[in-house]
Specification:
Oligomer: heterodimer
Number of domains of chain A: 2
Number of strands of chain B: 25
Largest sheet of chain B: 5 strands, mixed
Number of helices of chain B: 13
Helix content of chain A: 55-70%
Strand content of chain A: under 5%
CATH class of one domain in chain B: Alpha Beta
CATH architecture of one domain in chain B: 3-Layer(aba) Sandwich
Distance between the termini of chain B: 47 Å
Radius of gyration of chain A: 22 Å
Structural class of chain B: alpha+beta
């Protein structure tokens, strides 16, 4: 009997709902074991890759949209900081350096900070670095080519960092990041077994996606609320929202209406087929959770989030109260993450009975 | 320009960038065609610059490519290695830095008939060493019958009292051996070291071949080259063969973690084997003395651990109590026969450099056979006569710590400064038991792409031998390590060495070269 590793009951109430005996053995897809630590690494790799790709797309679209806006109408570059959730980190780092009389954040500073700024743990480069580190840890459970593609993306993004200083070079750099992330996903889809490791990766990816979609909606609509529906720039704004999420074309095919507040919100929150719509992300995450052992509590939180989103009063939200609503959705997403973390990644789950003790 | 050499025309070769270089017919080309390894033994090129029979096709092809194309291919290889992420970690002032794996594109060639003898010699050696290890932890017949002194066994820092009386699964202690082979200036083969603890390098051997296939695909038409990939399958069956459980065994690779210098290899092997890569904290030993892994489905029993953590760190209950790398209770599980550890704890007793000097006798004692491979005469500084000889002849000797690996602490007398020699002498006098010395062997060379073109650089060879309950296997060829500095004899990658792909080919050996095995008593002539 070891002193440090004595089996103790799990601190969560997981054991009340995870009844091994009652579970359907067919729920488990294979006998291959997946270390908790590996599951955590692929989950985070999924999140970081998604974050890098998502942030890159938003910066790219904002740069494009910026060019469209009439002088004096442009919203500046701060919204990007808000979407990425790094406004305070940015202020901390740049307000001291910049002249205090210049109230607006300079384009170069914002871009630098979002792409690779010191002190921005969720910059594109930091996300790629984290994805690479996680995939490096998870090498034994992911296809070799996927690791190589990620390593390559990280190398080329690092090598060409200075290129991103100009607007023209920035677009190239961002496209490389987006294409590189899509390439990695393509490899995973085409060559990775649909095993438990894949499930964790897809879950991480979808939680991050849903989170990003809510943040884009939140920040973009803040700037839109006062506008009238007849304002021609209202359409431009909503188109930018859709484009930030690669959703413009799918929206046009799915919705008869022009991109306006309510139709855009309905599509991005409730659509069940567009992969970046919050509803679709939650459906996918839940489907992946279903094949994992001991996932009941996480599934439950996923279902809760789905219900919140499905019951969104989109017409009313298009006029007001969207921020508060999106905050509820984000809290629901946090809960899904916490339950996954509790169930699989925390060390105290070790008190479980050996799964193969009867062998 | 047309350049001729030796027996015939080698084709058009572009001169390197030096535009003032003499033209053909003058003093000879400035490029690598002036390659002359003399007085060393060279793996590919004989005296006078003529390629050895097995290397002819390669040599002529290199000539046709010319230095610029070769530089391009070298650059392509380096890009590929960087992209694949083949790295090793170097420690500099306590900080680990990941470096791309150094690789030279010119392969080293070994004729198959030489290789078959080497293979037989390596299997013989590993079989005898396993019997020796088992004897050390049981009756110590080798001591009682006077083959080795008692101090060699129980006085060794690698002797583990905890292993006494243990019968590991399959009766095998050292399942995986990474031997270091060298050739002298006559081309004679010797074993330099048997690494039985956690030898590394096999992943680089496999990756080197992969890169070569991409860099020199056309060469594979000219040669019938023995594949290296089957190693992984043999490793898997070796590991499975020592499982203590019936049925499909659960195998894991145990790594000290992502900051270990060989982490790349640990991850590579786990990936290739299709098994989990675990750290100590992923495993737990319960009251039933079984080892379990912390998986997303709770605890799952582990049967075989290919551990890449040193003995003294595997179990804080038994060894270093503050080790964070190990698993409390692991030794208990192993001695209870509930898990196989590969290699077994205590196997390092036989890769001591003092034991090395007794291996020919060990082979004769346990196998009743003559050793196939030669060993190098070794002076044990603990012996007063040998010590006096070593101290009097330091500049002509290589001095090595008896119990360390990785090339650390090795002093090559002929290349040392007076100060270094004085320090070595002092260390030997202070603690003679820690040191052995050997004559300096002028390692063979192989043509290597250097700043000055193709030049001879010293090489060694690390093949890997597997011994499971189901038989033995030796990698076809091995990892050729090359000292990148001119004249240097230190090939370890931790000391700045590079590497080469190694081809065992179905081509004739050089009739002018004796293989150098099986003659005499198994120690050097």
């Amino acid at each position: 009997m070891t002193a440090t590793e004595s089996p103790s009951p799990p601190v969560t109430t997981t054991d009340q709902v995870t009844d091994d005996e009652g579970g359907d053995p067919d729920d488990k897809r294979s006998d291959t074991m997946l270390l908790a630590r590996m599951a955590e690494a692929v989950y985070w790799a999924g999140r970081h890759l998604e974050r890098a790709e998502g942030t890159a797309r938003i910066v790219q679209v904002h740069t494009d949209a910026h060019v469209d806006m009439p002088v004096g109408e442009d919203v500046g570059w701060e919204p990007l900081l808000a979407i990425a959730g790094v406004d305070s980190e940015f202020a901390e780092r740049y307000s001291a350096a910049a002249g205090a009389d210049d109230a607006r954040a300079a384009e170069e500073d914002v871009i630098e900070f979002l792409l690779h700024g010191d002190g921005n743990a969720s910059s594109i480069l930091a996300s790629l670095t984290a994805a690479r580190e996680n995939l490096r840890t998870a090498r034994p459970v992911i296809p070799r080519e996927a690791w190589e593609a990620c390593n390559n993306l990280w190398l080329s993004s690092t090598d060409h960092l200075s290129e991103a200083d100009s607007r023209e070079g920035r677009v190239r750099w961002l496209r490389r990041v987006i294409a590189g992330c899509q390439f990695i996903h393509g490899i995973l889809l085409g060559t990775m077994s649909r095993d438990e490791a894949m499930s964790f990766l897809v879950i991480g990816q979808n939680i991050e996606r849903a989170d990003l979609t809510t943040r884009v909606l939140d920040v973009r609509s803040e700037n839109l609320q006062p506008r009238g529906a007849d304002d021609p720039y209202d359409v431009v704004h909503w188109m930018a929202v859709l484009r930030s999420l690669s959703a413009y074309q799918p929206f046009r095919r799915a919705m008869p209406a022009r991109p306006q507040g309510d139709s855009t919100l309905r599509f991005l929150l409730q659509d069940d087929r567009f992969p970046r719509a919050v509803g679709a992300c939650l459906t996918e995450a839940r489907a992946q959770l279903k094949v994992l052992p001991h996932s009941e509590r996480a599934q439950e939180s996923c279902q809760n989030a789905s219900m919140v989103v499905a019951s969104a009063p989109v017409a009313r939200l298009a006029v007001g109260g969207l921020s508060e609503f999106l905050e509820d959705v984000q809290l629901a997403l946090v809960e899904i993450h916490e339950r996954i973390d509790d169930t699989y990644f925390r060390p105290n789950f070790v008190g479980w009975e050996p799964a193969t003790a009867t062998r | 320009m047309d350049l001729t050499h030796g027996s015939g025309t080698l084709g058009a070769v572009t001169a390197p960038t030096d535009s003032s270089a003499p033209t053909a017919g003058d003093l000879g080309p400035p490029g690598w065609l002036s390659y002359d390894p003399d007085p060393m033994y060279d793996e590919l090129v004989g005296p006078g610059g003529t390629p050895r029979p097995a290397a002819e096709a390669l040599w002529h092809h290199l000539a046709q490519l010319g230095p610029e194309a070769l530089d391009e291919r070298q650059a392509a290889a380096e890009r590929e290695i960087r992209a694949i992420g083949v790295t090793f970690t170097v420690y500099d002032g306590g900080v680990g830095v990941d470096r791309p794996w150094p690789f030279d594109i010119i392969p080293r060639i070994i004729p198959r008939d030489h290789w078959q003898l080497i293979e037989a010699g390596l299997v013989q050696r590993l079989a005898a060493l396993n019997l020796f290890i088992d004897d050390c932890y049981h009756d110590q017949r080798a001591v009682s019958e006077g083959v080795v002194p008692a101090d060699l066994v129980t006085g060794s820092p690698n002797f583990r009292r905890e292993c006494v009386g243990v019968d590991p699964p399959g009766g095998i202690w050292a399942h995986i051996c990474g031997s270091d082979l060298i050739r002298d200036d006559q081309g004679f083969w010797y074993v330099l070291e048997d690494n039985l603890r956690v030898p590394s390098g096999v992943s680089y051997l496999l990756e080197n071949r992969m890169v070569t296939k991409h860099i020199f695909p056309e060469m594979f038409r000219h040669y019938s080259i023995e594949p290296v990939d089957p190693y992984v399958g043999h490793l898997a069956s070796t590991l499975a063969s020592v499982s203590p459980s019936s049925g499909n065994p659960t195998i894991v690779v145990l790594t000290p973690g992502i900051y270990n210098s060989a982490y790349f290899e640990h991850a590579f092997l786990a990936q290739q084997l299709g098994v989990e890569l675990v750290e100590g904290s992923d495993l737990v030993v319960l009251d039933d003395d079984c080892v379990y892994a912390r998986t997303i489905d709770g605890l799952e029993r582990v049967d075989v651990i290919y551990r890449r953590v040193d003995d003294l760190f595997i179990d804080p209950e038994v060894f270093h109590p503050d080790s964070m790398l190990g698993v409390p209770g692991l030794m208990r599980a192993w001695t209870a026969g509930r898990v196989a550890l590969v290699n077994a704890p205590g196997a390092g007793i036989a890769d001591d450099k003092k034991v090395y000097s007794y291996v020919p006798d060990i082979i004769r004692f346990y196998l009743n056979e003559e050793p196939i491979l030669w060993t190098i005469p070794t002076y044990r500084c603990s012996d007063p006569g040998s010590r006096a000889h070593v101290l009097a002849n330091l500049p002509e000797l290589v001095v090595k710590p008896a119990n360390e690996s990785g090339g650390y602490g090795v002093l090559v007398g002929s290349q040392a400064t007076a100060g270094e020699l004085a320090l070595a002498a002092e260390q030997i006098r202070d603690d003679p038991n820690r040191w052995v010395a050997q004559p300096i062997i002028q390692l063979s060379t192989a043509p290597t792409l250097c700043d000055e073109g193709i030049a001879p650089r010293h090489v060694d060879l690390r093949p890997f031998t597997l011994l499971g309950a189901d038989g033995a296997y030796v990698t076809r060829g091995g990892l050729t390590r090359v000292a990148r500095r001119k004249g240097s004899l230190v090939v370890n990658s931790s000391q700045g060495g590079g590497s080469k792909d190694t081809w065992v080919v179905d081509a004739p050996a050089d009739p002018g070269v004796a293989a150098g095995f099986g003659a005499g008593d198994g120690s050097a002539p």
